[in-house]
């Protein structure tokens, strides 16, 4: 079973090398696709330097910034694997073990899909046992191949909510894998406190534009019911 890893990136020059190195090092990933979404910094240069040291990946570039959903749609169209692994490009603390833990429930047939629960996910997500907007997921390519144009046209962060809808509609078995050593980079560290706070508010607006708050709560409840038991915890 071939696995394609898709990494969308926009102005992640300070972080892309760490994520890309781990993906390139992982023996179970057959194909690595990085979609640069119109970066204006040295993201592409840093990625190519990493590739020269750790191995080949496929680079696809958008001429202008189109948003994460569009970048993921481009990656899906280019992918050839049976399974798709999505990795955000701003992760800190990611290792080979975390990727293995995320893909194992699916490749071994215990679950149909899986997603991560990172250390700095909101406390509420930890208490509920599911991060319904996690960017780190693995699922069959066949599940998404007919939906690339829909995905491309989603507003910013509506991607995860749309993926949840597909998972719930098909009642897919879900594995939630805790990543206690991994964090996503807070937006205030990338953009400054004011711009970071505005970006967080825009993210919430984008999600609720895809589904309203009531539907979001229903999604969380449904995903919790679809989890395989017990919840998997990965630790170094």
Automatic annotation (TrEMBL):
Top-level taxon: Bacteria
Family that this chain belongs to: Belongs to the glycosyltransferase 2 family.
UniProt xrefs under Pfam families: Glycos_transf_2 (PF00535)
Cofactor: Mg(2+)
GO MF: glycosyltransferase activity
Keywords, alphabetical: Glycosyltransferase, Magnesium, Transferase
InterPro entries: Glyco_trans_2-like (IPR001173), Glycosyltransferase_2 (IPR050256), Nucleotide-diphossugar_trans (IPR029044)
Domain Glycosyltransferase 2-like stretches: 5-118
Signal peptide positions on this chain: none
Protein's recorded name: Glycosyl transferase family 2
